[in-house]
Design brief:
The structure is a single chain. The protein is an alpha+beta fold and 531 residues long. The protein folds into four domains: 99 residues, no CATH class; 66 residues, no CATH class; 164 residues, no CATH class; 128 residues, no CATH class. Helices cover 49% and strands 11% of the residues. Helix 13 packs across helix 14. The longest helix has 33 residues. 33% of the residues are buried.
Length: 531
């Protein structure tokens, strides 16, 4: 009887849980304090109405329902003084942001849902690799959580764990081990140069160097994210990628799928559901795998794994391409998903099997058959597009350019740039540079079979857009550009034709003259158009 009691003891497990809960409270309170200190001085010289109007804009960034925004504003109005309002606003803002240890805390909490008592904890800590190898009844997801936690030095240094391990020790699941066999460090991301913001900063040099290396075999003519893939499609693409040691997101997804499906066919491990999915945003897609996904809703990723070898090629190495939604490096790609292959339903999928909002998206992908990756870095994917005043100002400026543009290619480019701002994949300032440079170009080209725009030379400049250049936010951006580039031939505080002319000359001389939106075929056919 005593032995059973000891086996079910949770004393040590509870100490770990209490430590994690205390860490979460401590970091959240620190974030609230820091946020309060930051905004206190800003609020001192503003009226209650100004504070409430500003806070409403903040709320609308995070909350899509107008009724909920009004409810929160009512609570702010009930605060007695500015000190109380400061605390209320600071608490609200801090609760929307991530704390430093958020990922670590989330994984340990999931770990404690798997390892529920001291007996299991002691067995696991005594020999983690053996424990994982013997847990045949556990899901791939549960085993991966165990791997993530036990390889984290912070967990091993917790007072109630206190596990000393050699620095070169790495505990792995069967999934990590099989993906490791691909020797992913040898592979390069073909499109890394197009997406520098997605490269892990610690590996940027190496990633870009691999992207520029020569191919080891014939280049594949990719078709991007297809509406669906067959097993034959996947095998053929995987063979080419393995030969070239180079790929893009959709071809890396097929490499991973082929590798795992071969192991399943050889009975190396229990059959699991492998889905290839694409995040579809306008004409942009990003393709990866879901492992063990059982929900009818593709965007319910609570108990499934994400396999993305393109992320590894972009320098996100620590998990060998296996992630959950908590540590996936591109979290905004986890919305608007469509399924293009399911190992348990390998034939084309009916529309009703997709996520709720995917029918029109699926049709888009069938008709466009385009590839590309548009990444944002927000920790929580927004329910709808929430634009900052700066982003909205830039979009309004681009619409003004579009209104005056008569060239079809320029109008197409401006629409794509507006989409880029809405999707927050390019900084607004960068979009302004591209838009103005292209708008005033004498010649602009759009490469057929590639969503790529190239322009050159300058056309005449008139006063049609002087007002647009002097709009709030836009004017400040151009004044910063003038100062940064030491443009001297400008007069007055407003943006004049002379100033615009100087800006365009500087853009023409110093800035890039192309915008690549998508890439489908390796073709040099061009559509050429004058202004």
């Amino acid at each position: 009887m005593r032995r059973n009691f000891e086996g079910l003891s949770t004393l040590r497990v509870n100490k770990i849980r209490n430590h994690i809960n205390a860490l979460e409270v401590q970091e959240r309170n620190r974030l609230i304090t820091d946020t309060g200190n930051m905004i206190r001085g800003r609020m001192a010289d503003h009226s209650d109405d100004e504070i409430e109007n500003s806070f409403k804009l903040v709320c609308e960034r995070y909350i899509s329902e107008p009724e909920e925004v009004e409810r929160i504003l009512d609570r702010l109005k009930n605060c007695q003084d500015k000190s109380e309002k400061t605390k209320f606003i600071a608490t609200f803002v801090a609760e929307q942001e991530s704390i430093p240890s958020e990922e670590f805390i989330a994984f340990v909490k999931k770990f404690l849902e798997i390892i529920k008592n001291d007996s299991e904890l002691n067995s696991f800590l005594a020999n983690p690799q053996e424990y994982i190898n013997n847990q045949k009844h556990r899901s791939a997801y549960a085993l991966q959580i165990l791997q993530f936690v036990i390889n984290n030095p912070r967990f091993n240094s917790l007072p109630d764990v206190n596990r000393k391990i050699p620095s070169d020790t790495f505990i792995s699941t069967w999934l990590t081990s099989y993906l490791y066999q691909l020797n992913l460090l040898e592979y390069g991301a073909k499109d890394a140069i197009r997406f520098p913001e997605c490269i892990h900063p610690d590996w940027k040099e190496q990633v870009l160097a691999k992207a520029k290396k020569n191919y080891n075999g014939p280049q594949t003519i990719g078709t991007g994210a297809l509406p669906y893939y067959t097993r034959r499609n996947i095998a053929e693409t995987a063979k080419h990628v393995a030969q070239m040691k180079m790929g893009e997101c959709h071809s890396f997804a097929q490499l991973a799928a082929d590798h795992l499906l071969k192991f399943i066919a050889a009975d190396k491990f229990t059959s699991i559901d492998i889905k290839m999915v694409s995040h579809v945003n306008g004409l942009g897609t990003h393709t990866f795998l879901l492992i063990g996904h059982q929900s009818d809703n593709l965007e319910d990723l609570n108990n499934c794994l994400i396999v993305d070898l393109w992320a590894v090629a972009m320098g996100h190495l620590s998990t060998y391409g296996v992630y959950t939604q908590e540590n996936y490096p591109f979290p905004s790609m986890l919305t608007k998903l469509v399924c293009c292959y399911d190992s348990r339903a390998p034939l084309p999928l009916p529309q009703h099997s997709q996520s709720n909002s995917s029918s029109s998206i699926q049709q888009d992908i069938k008709t466009t058959v385009l590839s590309g990756n548009f990444f944002t870095k927000k920790l929580t994917p927004p329910i709808k597009k929430h634009l900052t005043p700066l982003q909205q100002a830039v979009i309004d400026f681009l619409k003004a350019l579009d209104k005056h543009a008569v060239n079809r290619v320029k109008k197409d480019l401006l629409k794509d740039l507006i989409k880029a701002v809405e999707d927050k994949k390019i900084k607004p300032e960068k979009v302004l540079n591209l838009a103005v440079s292209a708008y005033y170009a004498k010649l602009i080209e759009k490469i057929r079979d590639k969503d790529k725009y190239v322009w050159k030379q300058m056309s005449a400049i008139d006063n049609a857009l002087v007002e647009a250049f002097n709009k709030p936010y836009i004017k400040e951006i151009w004044q910063s550009y003038i100062n940064e580039n030491n443009i001297r031939d400008t007069l007055g505080s407003d943006i004049s034709i002379t100033t615009i002319n100087a800006i365009v000359h500087c853009l023409n001389k110093n800035e890039e003259h192309e915008f690549i939106n998508q890439s489908i075929l390796n073709s040099n056919k061009m559509c050429f158009s004058g202004n």
